[in-house]
Amino acid sequence: MTAPARKVCMLGDFGVGKTSLVARYMRNTFSDTYLTTVGVKVDSKEVDLGEPGVLKLVVWDIAGRSVLDALNMSYLRGASGLLLVADGTREASLRTAIDLLLQSRSVLADAEAVLIINKLDLVERWEVGPSTLAGLRQTMPVIETSALSGDGVEQAFLELAKRLAR
Amino acid sequence: MSEKHEMPTFSAGVEHHVAQFLFERAQPLLLQFDENWQLVNLHGDPARFGFDPDHADAAARQLRDLFLGMPLDETIDLPFVHMPNGRSAHVHLLGDSEPGFQVLLLDAQGEHDRQQAQQQVGNEAALISGQKSKAIAQLRQIRSELERQRMRLAEANALKNALIATLSHDFRTPLTSIFGYLHLLDTQASQSASVRHALRALRRNSNYLFTLAENLLEYARADTRSSMLEPVRVDLAHLVEDLEGMFQPLAADQGLEFTIGVELLDAQTPVLDELRLRQILVNLIANAVRYTKKGGVGVALRWQDGALSIEVRDSGIGIAEELHEQVFVAFNRVRQAAGSGAGLGLSIVKRLVSQMHGSIDLQSRLGEGSCFHIVLPGLASVVAAPQAGTDETPALGSSRIRSVLVVDDDPDICYLLDAWLSDLGFRVRIVGDAGAAVESALADPPDVLLVDVELPGLSGNTAVFRLRAKGYRGHIVTLSATPTEEARKVALNAGADQYLTKPINIEVLARAMQAATPRR
Fold this sequence. Notes:
The structure holds two protein chains of two kinds. Chain A has a single domain, classed as P-loop containing nucleotide triphosphate hydrolases (Rossmann fold). Helices cover about 30% and strands about 25% of the residues of chain A. Chain A has five helices and six strands; from the N terminus they run E-H-E-E-H-E-H-E-H-E-H. The two termini of chain A are about 20 Å apart. Chain B is α/β, with parallel strands linked by helices. Among the domains of chain B are: about 15-105, 2-Layer Sandwich (Beta-Lactamase), CATH 3.30.450; about 230-375, Heat Shock Protein 90 (2-Layer Sandwich); about 400-515, 3-Layer(aba) Sandwich (Rossmann fold). Chain B contains 13 helices and 17 strands. In chain B, the strands form four sheets. A five-stranded antiparallel beta sheet of chain B has the order 2-1-5-4-3, sandwiched between helices. In chain B, strands 7-9-10-12-11 form a five-stranded mixed beta sheet, with helices on one face. In chain B, strand 16, helix 12 (about 485-495) and strand 17 form a beta-alpha-beta unit. The N and C termini of chain B lie far apart (about 120 Å). The interface of A and B includes residues 7, 35, 63 and 77 of A.
């Protein structure tokens, strides 16, 4: 029996670590060389959620943008979930992630969303304060991650998968 | 009226050429699926996009994932999709193939690479720019923090200076009393030998205490300003006697031989800052005795050609040549490691020598003792040439008795000045504050006004200023415990003629009074 599949899009400004998060989650690899993503990379992984069963996440790693243009909108079609990614060391990237979520609502009104604050390994240089995150947690799941060390990465995808399985 | 652009028509040959060119660049792969995503047919090279022709199911699964959640009866274009082999392709779903659908893949690797290179540069520049802005903001913050620290340090420094000024006054005022009364007792002829001995010990130890206190104050004053020199005629033989009395017992206790002597090869009386000279000698000799365990310490002074040469030689632990500079740095570890002491003495010596425009030289080797050689130029040009027969306390006098008004709030100092000035032939009046001084001086103008700066309420300088403003023309000598050039300028600007610092030396006072009341 084929596991049900859900399309998940990674959204966030350039350089926040979307591709690295996907690489860590899908292949448990990491490269510290920054390479701009052009277009989209699609990967999939089955997640065993226990009681609800297995869910296949089809993850779209979309090129980083601060605004959603027509091209990005076309990539979003059919998505059930969004992983919004911000870089903890760049507070502006958090505002971008929130903006992208609001823009995506025009085509994905009901998509589940989880906010990832990446680069936990550089926490001493974070501009995003704990009080800001506490405020955001009132409205959506917020998970701090490090693609470099792997901290929080599995948890972030799993959190979204659980919400998509409901 | 809108203008309609029509596609230009070309000959069949041109169109064929263009089609061939685009076809070769795009390397199209057309996959035809039925409604259940079963591959029905394909045209092109699947391997170019990473698909295994023998495993059509895998290719079908990957493409199906790509269109997950999308309506399959529409034409959908997905540019720059990452293929299984890493190449980039434009993927088009052509929903007009009933009952299934067709997926067209066009190679976009070249275009992808160009865009990626362009975006990479732009994104990296933006990231670096962000980091630069952040670094600049941090630098601004650091500068602002440094400025705050600087303000706090300036405030602390001002407090320190105020404390030093207070300490200086608090040390010097009682020492003035002690030295003055010792002088009075010394002049009494009825003393027995044992009393004279005791008085000498008291004077010696008071001097020593004063020197130690001055060391600390001198060190603390270092960064503020250079203290002014106080040139006086120095009785070097007497000084040597004092030093011998101070250090001979100490050296004897340690089993050391201690010799000290002076050669006077210039007929002119040495004029030097005696207090600083004493500090230099006490520090050098104390160090020599402290760091010598066997052998001896020898001190030789020579007054020749208007300069004083000092040599302090010991057979102590010595100082390695590479550390010669370090020993003159305050709180240096060299001296601390060698024994007791804060490593302050030599730094004070160097500073004092510099203030007296002298030079210092150190010859020493580890384990072979040390020899400090100092040359201090005389300060004869700074003070007025002494008159004939005035090597002793200057005699004062005139046909009439001169009057002096002493203004000081310390009763001991007042009593002492009264005794000294009476001895010098003055009629003395005493008041304790600035207001009374102004009133008394205007009511009965004295020949000389001797006023302390640090008075309760209005300062002595204020009293001087007011008196000058009201026409007082007598001679004014200001006394203060603050030995700085700034304090001297303030006092002279207020209207004083002379500025003396405590502790008061009777000889200096006598000379000042002589200058104030010249013979007619």
